[in-house]
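Example 3.
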Amino acid sequence: MIQTILWKPEGVVMIDQTRLPLEEIYVTCQSYQEVADAIRTMVIRGAPAIGVAAAMGVAIGVQQADAAGLDAQFEAICAELASTRPTAVNLFWGIDRMKRLYASLRHLSHREITERLVAEAILVCEEDIEINKAIGRHGAPLVPDNSTILTHCNAGALATAGYGTALGVVRAAVEAGKTIDVFSDETRPFLQGARLTVWELQHDGIPATLITDNMAGHFLHSGRIGCVIVGADRIAANGDVANKIGTYGVAVLAKENNVPFYVAAPVSTLDLTLPDGTHIPIEERASAEVTHIQGVRMAPEGTVVRNPAFDVTPNRYVTAIISERGVARAPFTESLRELAAKRGSL
Amino acid sequence: MIQTILWKPEGVVMIDQTRLPLEEIYVTCQSYQEVADAIRTMVIRGAPAIGVAAAMGVAIGVQQADAAGLDAQFEAICAELASTRPTAVNLFWGIDRMKRLYASLRHLSHREITERLVAEAILVCEEDIEINKAIGRHGAPLVPDNSTILTHCNAGALATAGYGTALGVVRAAVEAGKTIDVFSDETRPFLQGARLTVWELQHDGIPATLITDNMAGHFLHSGRIGCVIVGADRIAANGDVANKIGTYGVAVLAKENNVPFYVAAPVSTLDLTLPDGTHIPIEERASAEVTHIQGVRMAPEGTVVRNPAFDVTPNRYVTAIISERGVARAPFTESLRELAAKRGSL
């Protein structure tokens, strides 16, 4: 199984997702600042994986802090990690989980606090894999047999601690004996589909076909695609879904062609504090991601760029949201509230 | 003004569109085979430009043919040029125009035939610029003032003999005093938008913003886009439009967000022999265009790819088709037949 992120005595070890698939290089972050940089520069990406990285970042930060004035240092660690990327709510979920635990441990010694936070971060990582397997179990029955699944970006093992959300559903469907293959949008500008999804599926022997993002409509219209499954970076209370830029377009094209559009995500991706997707902050990234590809300039000097990293898909395009606690359908305000209330039911 | 293609005594001179924008290199094709290669490898691309190149290819082929057995050589020249790319009907239109002329010249000497065919090819080139200016005049009133125009691929000066079809409408709107700017889809895999459209608009001082293809939906949904204008490679009798892959997706997203979707193309792009777009042959190009960018590998070794170069936009998504003879609206079967019948009215 692909190991995205791992706690080791020497630090937080991550596979460098900026180098895949040409090079399989593991980096070791030895401070919370290095973890923050890894999130910011997308050495690690994918909402659930970012949640795990944030928890581990807090743990390594506390481990290396001075025993004196720990509260203030803890706040600084959390603030630095929270500043890395704005859209994926799992980042804040991971930090908040560590904050709640820290608040309950303040009577303990620095060493004891560190041990508990490290154990918690490892637990967050291990739980994420179990969550994804549960998402797979709930999602697999929705996948039509003998069909092609279209996915966008990488919501796979590399976007999580392992197994994946959208690709977890794919894996579970394959494990259930279904004959399926995957069409992967390349997902500009960062090419998560071309670089990560295809690599991951090759690893598992699941047939994958790479297309450019602008081909999705053509193949949805052709009748070739049985369903779309994507991940999510944040889901508002009404079921509006923030996910990788281009998801909205795929969703509209799926609906136009009567192809089911599924979102696979853990409950930690829900943000029930936001009534709808218009309140989700959308990260705008550097122009060079668009003007250059792997360091090679494509567009002329002086090109003006817009580079929103995410978009919001209104709930009316979402057939269902697949979580570790079950499948939510419209009206999502009710079904998502129910999922969120099923605490501890994983 | 940007010179896409030019007849010179030493051969057919083209700006190499595979090298733009990083290098402005002109290549000289000294035989019809070199012209065919230039079309095939996309040194020159864009439906109207391909039509001009085909006409010049026929002319240079006849110029270099033996006087003996000219008919058979003429057939071979036309067949070779016709085999280069299947979708853009302008290619066949250009060849057919030369064939009709050749048929009327067979009583003349080889030298006289050559002179007439060369003159005709130069005329095809000059006429194309006039046609595009007329498209611009008809289209400019449709462009909302103080708005952003979204375009896909490059339907500009570089896709034609000069001035452009979709970008011809943009230029005419600017010349008419409208305050507009352009959002350009980068247009994977060949990056015509990033490499050619942005470059061309910079040349003319028209504000341009580059986005990846999968951002088009986001900006159409945001209310930022006043209208979409694209070119076409072939338009069936019912108004279904074959154009660069991704056009269908943009059209669906435009309609979903109540943004007008305009197609700008010369009458030579009409193929009234085809009742609808399902009959248009769609070229599938090499996998390496998708797995590699500017020679740099992106996807893993062994990646399976689909690479259709075009898609078909059903007529229900097309607000209007802007030609040099006027603007056609639904029902297109009637309006396009009327346009085609307005012979000589440019």
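Chain A touches chain B through 53 residues (CB under 8 Å). DSSP finds eleven helices and 17 strands in chain A.
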